[in-house]
Specification:
With about 260 residues, the chain is mostly helical. About 60% of the residues lie in helices and about 5% in strands. The chain is built from twelve helices and three strands; from the N terminus they run E-E-H-H-H-H-H-H-H-H-H-H-H-E-H. Strand 1 and strand 2 form a beta hairpin.
């Protein structure tokens, strides 16, 4: 069977799955890495969603957020609800919920920064570059060096790499012609060889392939990250699900 609308945050795929497959890949195109606790929550949430009980799950999470529950419970509920809304394509709602989650976590912590990146993702999904740029310049970028040192270096690296990539995506969306694409494409190509961008490299390579049509990027993606959902797109095993981000993205071949 073909399952439509498999959400991978800002990019959504349709995967052809074997009949006995009991789960589907929920890795996101924008490389939104979850913490261990968030992963456990997401897995439990997936089990509930598999039963088709989306509305009751949403109502339960909203009830928690409106209650006098401890901040920790509200943080967990907002993280789960934001991810659910994003996967359902409710980007405006998800953007607000991610922002709320960031406030519960503390905006200057790495967990809070990842939630703010979620808000940026959702703004980009709606092609709302003004909001994305505002969040990146006022909330994410200024706090990068102030993120809590107790968190792992890999998480800090992910936040920094994602912020750079999201800023480039915003730049690319605003490009109206081939000349305006030159600068962001040059930056993307430089990032392709930057080890500091390794955590978001599959998304970066697919972006290059999607915009330029150059097969070398697809080959590098398939060789270096063969099991990524982005490689599935390059292999023709998955495809984009329509979202505003992709309609507003300027392709080099179509640019003036």
């Amino acid at each position: 069977p073909i399952l439509t609308g498999i959400p991978l945050v800002n990019m959504r795929f349709r995967f052809t799955l074997k009949p006995l497959a009991a789960f589907f890949c929920t890795l996101c195109f924008f490389a939104a890495v979850l913490t261990a606790a968030e992963t456990d929550t997401a897995q439990k949430q997936s089990g509930t969603l598999a039963e088709g009980d989306v509305q009751s799950v949403t109502d339960s999470l909203l009830k928690t957020l409106k209650s006098n529950a401890p901040v920790e419970k509200k943080l967990e509920a907002s993280q789960t609800l934001a991810a659910l809304q994003e996967r359902l394509g409710l980007y405006a709602d998800a953007e607000k919920t991610y922002t709320a989650a960031a406030s519960f976590a503390g905006e200057r912590t790495l967990s809070g920064q990842k939630m703010l990146l979620g808000s940026v993702r959702c703004a980009l999904c709606r092609a709302d570059v003004s909001t994305a740029d505002f969040l990146l310049s006022t909330s994410v970028a200024p706090a990068l060096n102030a993120a809590d040192s107790a968190s792992s270096a890999s998480e800090a690296s992910y936040v920094k790499a994602s912020a750079k990539l999201y800023a480039l995506w915003s730049w690319i969306i605003k490009a109206q012609n081939k000349k305006e694409l030159e600068a962001p494409l040059k930056a993307l190509r430089s990032y392709a060889d930057d080890q500091d961008m390794i955590s978001v490299k599959p998304a970066l390579l697919l972006t290059l392939y999607h915009i330029t049509g150059e097969k070398r990027w697809a080959e590098k993606l398939k060789n270096d990250f063969p099991f990524s959902p982005e490689a599935s797109v390059a292999n023709g095993q998955a495809e984009f699900f329509p979202a505003p981000f992709w309609y507003f993205l300027t392709l080099q071949s179509a640019a003036d």
